[in-house]
Specification:
putative 2-phosphosulfolactate phosphatase, 239 residues, 4-stranded parallel beta sheet, globular, binds D-malate, 4-stranded mixed beta sheet, alpha/beta, 18% strand, single chain
């Protein structure tokens, strides 16, 4: 029996799936999983996903950089927010980072609680490296969209659809959500940035007058050849 591939549109739906023994790819295109990929490309040592800013702040005492974002904004008093541009700073090389974001870190921790066998970090930046990694793991896969506060979002589902489209031959496709995500991606792929700029999260960025164009950055393809993955409590990246 070929391995299956499923798409879960929001973390609220994850408990409806059999997670144990499967590889979960956590997807938060705008911007947590993109930022995590960039952090390891810059040379971060390890990243600890935490649930709350209060918990995150504790790790300052252990020489961690502390990164906290809520509602797309960097929280005051923290070293980093969640824009991938912040993670290109060479000062993060070799550092441990404690990270809490609105949706992305929650999705990572939920996948761990539900006993996924592997938890990988996916973004358009490491899409090809991720497909290669999945083929070596040879396990059934759940593509978990972080969404927005347990609601569907466009960009994570488009990435999941791109993954299904890229790896179709390797998996048994019996999941309607995966089929729909693939068709959504195929229908939008030629104007992806235009579509994502119409998404609710891109509009949040506009309302907040973000200083950087995080949408364009997060839609870059294959600029990162690494696949960060959860090992125990930490996200690490073996070269
Ligand atoms: C998230 O974790 O939901 C997002 O990455 C939020 C953001 O950084 O805008």
């Amino acid at each position: 029996m070929a391995n299956s591939i499923e798409v879960v549109y929001t973390p609220a739906l994850l408990p409806m799936h059999e997670v144990k023994g499967k590889t979960v790819v956590v997807i938060d295109i705008l911007r947590a999983t993109t930022s995590i990929c960039v952090a390891f490309q810059t040379g971060a040592a390890k990243i600890l996903p935490v649930a709350t800013p209060e918990e995150c702040r504790v790790f300052k005492e252990f020489d961690f950089l502390c990164a906290a974002e809520r509602n797309a904004l960097k929280l005051d008093g923290f070293d980093l927010g969640n824009s991938p541009f912040e993670y290109q700073n060479p000062l993060i090389a070799g550092r441990n980072i404690a990270l809490t974001t609105t949706n992305g870190t929650k999705a990572i921790k939920m996948a761990k609680e539900l006993q996924a066998s592997n938890i990988l970090i996916g973004s358009f930046l490491n899409l090809s490296a991720l497909c290669d990694k999945l083929s070596t793991l040879a396990e059934s896969v759940i593509l978990l969209c972080a969404g927005w506060k347990d609601r569907f979002n466009l960009e994570d589902t488009l990435f999941a659809g791109a993954m299904v489209n890229e790896s179709a031959s390797a998996f048994q496709l019996d999941c309607d959500a995966a089929l729909a995500a693939r068709e959504l991606y195929v229908s939008m792929q030629d104007n992806l940035e235009q579509w994502v700029r119409q998404s609710s999260h891109a509009k949040r960025f506009q309302l907040l007058h973000l200083q950087t164009d995080d949408v364009a950055f997060c839609l870059q393809r294959n600029t990162v050849k690494l696949v960060p993955m959860l090992q125990g409590e930490y996200i690490v990246c073996k070269q």
